[in-house]
Write a structure and sequence with these properties.
Elements (H helix, E strand, L loop, with lengths): L1 E2 L4 H4 L13 H13 L7 E4 L3 H14 L3 E3 L16 H7 L1 H8 L14 H18 L5 E5 L1 H12 L16 E7 L2 E9 L14
Parallel strand pairs: 1-4, 2-3, 2-4
Antiparallel strand pairs: 5-6
Helix pairs in contact: 2-3, 4-5
Length: 206
């Protein structure tokens, strides 16, 4: 599982959600570094979210692995509703009540403006991963996705509840290895940044 490379909005701590923001120069270099790092690995398939920043991150990996990208819209980032396009500070100032519930990780709270609740988001990711795991039983696959998706995946594998504050990193273009066995997800390795000089985290205070 690979988070997409850095975008200008990541650098500005701006919430992207479903908005289609491209990688910046740093992000493109991170994508190349991840592809070089994984060049000797073997994967049966390469999946990506359908948003541009994941597809750009997956492009050099697709070349080095000689695999076509399989777009899976359910691997998109969480929809952040009225927060999309705002920095964390702007969201807190403009929508203080909604921001407080968001920061508290209220599982049932869906942000105004079409946003997803954590419960709905988790169901979406779980369905996508279950299908991928069933389709590739006994195989290794690469998945390029988003910080929010990886937050959910880590919780699948670690048993941490949705409402718990995140205590693990999700850097841009880092590598996260998980295993599905006997109906359960398990963490193998998380936030491997050996191929990167620097990477931002999803949260504003990291």
């Amino acid at each position: 599982m690979i988070r997409h490379g850095e975008t200008a909005w990541n650098a500005e701590r701006r919430l992207q959600g479903h908005l289609d923001v491209p990688l910046n120069e740093t992000g493109l270099a991170q994508a190349d570094a991840a592809a070089r790092h994984l060049a000797d690995e073997r994967f049966a398939a390469l999946y990506t979210s359908d948003l541009l920043r994941t597809r750009q991150t997956a492009t050099p990996l697709a070349r080095s692995l000689a695999r076509e990208m399989i777009r899976e819209p359910r691997l998109r980032e969480r929809h952040y509703g009225c927060f999309q396009g705002l920095t964390y500070e702007e969201a807190a100032l403009r929508h203080p009540h909604d921001y407080a519930r968001h920061k508290a990780r209220d599982p049932d709270f869906a942000l105004p403006g079409g946003g997803e609740s954590l419960i709905a988001f988790r169901h979406r990711i779980a369905a996508a991963l279950a299908e991928i795991a069933a389709r590739h039983a006994g195989e290794r696959v690469a998945v390029v996705t988003h910080g929010g998706v990886l937050d959910i995946i880590h919780r699948f594998a670690s048993g941490q509840p949705l409402e718990a504050a995140r205590d693990f990193p999700i850097p841009n273009a880092a590598l996260n290895w998980i295993e599905f066995d006997d109906g359960r997800w398990r963490l193998l390795s998380w936030a491997d940044q050996a191929h990167l000089q620097f990477a931002l985290d999803e949260l504003p205070d990291r």
